[in-house]
Structure formats: C-alpha cells, structure tokens
Design goal:
This protein is 83% helix and 0% strand. The protein is built from 19 helices and no strands.
C-alpha cells in the first residue's frame, strides 16, 4: 500500500526536486548573498502569515473530505470552505498591506517584496484548497498534474523575471520569484477552479460546518506557526545580528541540506496521510494505527540514509551553490541534515496524532517549549559562534520538539513509535557510512564524480543490507513498487494492504 501510493506521487515530487534544487543552484548564482537574504526573509514571512491566516481552511478541506463522502454532502463541504476562504482572504490581504505600508521598522528594501509576496500567497490559497481536496479524495492524477504544473510554471517564470528585472528595470530582481508564483497560480486555477466549482453545485454554505472547521483548523495554523518559528525564526535573528548576507548564506545552506529531506517527507506524507484519515473514518482505529505503523517506519527508512548521505558528501556537494555560499554550507550541512530528520518526524508523523484525534490545539502546547529554547539559545549563541550557533540551537530545539510531540500526542491518539525500525535503520546507516568513508578517493577527483561514487556505493550498501535483513519491513515496500511497475504480477495481500485499494487504483 505505501509503495503503491508513493509511486503515484512521483510526478509532483520530481517537480518539487527540480524546483527545490534548481532554485538553490540557480538563485545562488543569479542573486547575491544580500539579495538572497532579503528573498529568504520575505519568503518565510509570506509562508508564516499564510499558515497563520489560511492553513486552517486547507487543513479542514483535507481532514473532512472523507467524512463528507461518507455523509454524501461533499458539495456543501467544498462550497463552505471556498466561501469562507473568500471571506477570509480579502480582509486579510488588506490587513497585510496596511501593516507593510504603515507600521514603522520594516526595512524599505523589504517592503516591495512583502507587498507582492503576500499578494501571491493570498491568491495561492484558492489553488491549495483544490490540491487538498484532490489528495483527500484520492484524485492523484489530477493533483499531480496540477501541482507539478504550478511548481514548474512558477519556477520558470520567476527565473525569467529575475533576469529581465535586473537587465531592464531598477526593480529588485528577487521580486521575480514572487511574481512567478502569481503567474503559476493563475494559470493552474484556470483549469482547476472550474472543476472545483462543479463539486460545489447544489451545495450550501453551512455556518455550523465552518465553525467545526475553524475549531479544528485554527489550532493547526497556530501550531504550524510555532513549528515554522522553530525552523525559520532564526533567520530574523541572523538578519538582525549579522546582516542580509549572513542570512542569505545560512538560508541557502540550510535549504540545500534540509529541503531534500523535506521533499521526501512531503512525498510520503501526501501519499499516506489521506489513506490514514480514510481508514479512521471508514474502518476504525486499528486500521488507522496499522497504516501509521508502516508510515513511521517508511519515513525513517527513506529519510535517515538520505541525511547520512548529505553529511557524507557535504564538502564536495558545496560546488552546487554559488561561490559566496560554499564555505558556510560545508560547516552547516551535516548537522542540519540530521536536524531535518527530527523536524520531518515532528511535522509529518508526530503531528498526525493530533490531527487524527481532533485535539489539534494540544499540538500548540507541544511546540511552545522548543520554540522558546530555540529563540533563547540563538540569542546567546549567534553573537558568540555565528551561524554554527544557530545550527546547534536548531538541533537541540528539534530534539525537544520531537520528544514533546510524541509524548503529548500519544495521550490522545495511540500513534506507534517505530523504535525497532529506528534502531535497525541506524545500524544500517552506520554500516553505509563506514563503507563510504573507507572508499579511497584520489586527490583531484572532480567533486561531481566523488559525489556519484559515494552516492552509488552508499545506496548499494544500504539497499542490500536492508533488503537482506528486511530492515523496517522494507521488502514489502520494494515489492509493492515492483508489482506496480509490473502490473501483470500479482501483489500478495497482507493485513496492511491498501484500505481502499479499488478506489486508489482507479485514480492512479
């Protein structure tokens, strides 16, 4: 089930990889470190405000789609959310712009970026609602095609606009990426919004449902802001203490190490979370627990060797970044890679206990201690140790956050803790690291060749060891992927088979 669902989301995740790594590779060459720093601060501000004001609607769309299907009122569910999205978006955008224009203290060179960036994230809300509906309803082909198109159009348009703005205007070139998001959103909405309007036909706007959605979703918004403060709040402190260039260097290095892991977590999460929700709504607690048990093991099985690999090739991989960003990347990447695993397990695994139990407000309290620890340690360590002080603060805060989220979350939903899988995978990663570090790489070997040698050996060693020992139950995942590629072969049914196989197969 997990292997087949993951395979169905490959197109959108390939697009994410292209955009993520292409953005880092190209933007660190098109933009200087100060320009990249302003872009990064504007981007995290845009995403943080989106989480605070809009994510409750997106979360409700995802969580209650299966229930609406069970109750045969999907049209009312969808129409209610879109209507309240419109009622929320217009005054919120007006508030955003008023703050930018009239609140003192915002740097003048940051205001135009925030003005356009906040407009882009408000428009994107209506695209995101459709994407969440498609995932929750297992319309995987439609979701993959729509979201992959959005990512690639936005990215391409943004890069073209950066070049044109720098060459022909006095406008900050980094603004091109936010204008690209607006273009990509409008293009995809032209195709997706009519489909969603059909899903609203004959539906009613229900204030009662809107209240339920708000009480469910707003704690998620608040908790996501806290989680985002945990992951990105140090950017503001670095900018304030060390300046735009240091913020740009840190952001590029952090994103290079962390974003690759984030793509993996999102890939697995978007494939499995709708299945877990459907299992809970239609087949009960035990089925949902079975899905989550495999889900947690799969997250670790894929993310931990990826983090180990990033740490092993940090030095030769720095050539991927622009020259201004390379020295910092070598120092930051190893620790950030393993911190990224903890961050992913918080956001894409432990948080599911609060989502499935409906106790989303409790996730807020789970995130308060690590955020405070992160801020406090950054204030002490950044002036003394520079960017490495921010890295150490992040690692400690993530560890506290993961423990707190699991302990508190299990009070409300019995989410499995994959301890056995973690120990097995850790041992496999140590074997992989030992073999890779012992490879004799001649001096003068091109960085790309060194990376390919280490990556090939690491993947082979890890894959063979895991398959031979069935680490974290990986054989079934690999077999499911194989049989999906070879549809003529029959996949053996297991107790953890897809809870909605016929429906899922029809959409994939």
């Amino acid at each position: 089930m997990i292997g087949r669902s993951m395979l169905a989301y490959i197109p959108v995740n390939l697009a994410s990889l292209v955009v993520s790594f292409g953005g880092i590779v190209i933007l660190t060459r098109l933009l200087g470190s100060a320009e990249y720093g302003r872009y990064a601060v504007a981007m995290i501000t845009m995403m943080g405000l989106h989480m605070g004001f809009f994510t409750w609607l997106e979360a409700a769309m995802a969580r209650y789609q299966a229930r609406a299907e069970r109750e045969d009122n999907v049209n009312t569910h969808v129409k209610t959310i879109y209507k309240y999205a419109l009622r929320t978006a217009i005054p919120t955008l007006a508030l955003f712009w008023s703050v930018i224009l009239f609140v003192p203290g915002i740097p003048a060179d940051l205001k135009p970026l925030l003005f356009v960036g906040l407009a882009s994230t408000t428009i994107q809300l209506f695209l995101n609602l459709g994407m969440e509906a498609h995932k929750a309803a297992h319309r995987i082909k439609r979701y993959s095609a729509s979201f992959a198109s959005f990512q690639l159009i936005s990215f391409t348009a943004g890069l073209i606009l950066i070049v044109l703005l720098r060459k022909y205007t006095d406008i900050q070139p980094e603004m091109g990426m936010f204008l690209g998001i607006i273009i990509g959103t409008f293009v995809v909405l032209c195709f997706d919004l009519p489909f969603m309007l059909k899903n609203m036909k004959n539906g009613e706007v229900s204030a009662e449902k809107a209240k339920l959605y708000f009480h469910y979703g707003m704690p998620i918004s608040i908790s996501l802001i806290l989680t985002y403060a945990l992951t990105s709040g140090d950017m503001y402190l670095i900018k304030g203490i060390m300046g735009d260039s240091a913020a740009g260097e840190y952001s590029a290095s952090y994103n290079f190490a962390n974003r690759s892991l984030d793509v993996l977590f999102i890939w697995i999460g978007m494939a499995i979370t709708p299945v877990a929700v459907t299992a809970l709504e239609k087949e009960g607690l035990e089925k949902s627990k079975a899905v989550l048990r495999d889900y947690g093991a799969s997250l670790l099985w894929i993310a931990m060797p990826a983090a180990t690999g990033i740490a092993l090739v940090a030095e030769p991989a720095a050539f991927i970044l622009g020259e201004e960003f390379r020295d910092g990347a070598v120092k930051i990447m190893p620790a950030i890679a393993f911190a990224g695993v903890m961050n992913g397990m918080i956001s894409y695994y432990a948080q599911r206990a609060f989502m499935l139990s409906g106790k989303t407000q409790m996730f807020v309290w789970a995130m308060v201690p690590p955020v405070l620890i992160n801020i406090g340690m950054n204030l002490v360590l950044i002036p003394k140790y520079g960017l490495m002080g921010a890295v150490w603060s992040t690692v400690v805060a993530y560890a506290v956050g993961l423990i707190a989220a699991l302990v508190i979350g299990r009070r409300y939903f019995p989410i499995p803790i994959p301890i056995k899988a973690f120990l097995q995978i850790t041992f496999a990663c140590l074997i992989m690291a030992g073999v890779v570090m012992s490879i004799p790489i001649p001096d003068g070997t091109p960085d790309f060749i060194e990376i390919m040698i280490k990556a090939s050996v690491g993947i082979a060693v890890y894959g063979l060891f895991c398959f031979s020992t069935n680490t974290a139950g990986c054989r079934r995942i690999i077999q499911n992927i194989y049989y999906k590629i070879r549809p003529g072969k029959r996949v053996e049914e297991t107790v953890n088979a897809d809870i909605n196989d016929a429906s899922l197969e029809a959409t994939t």
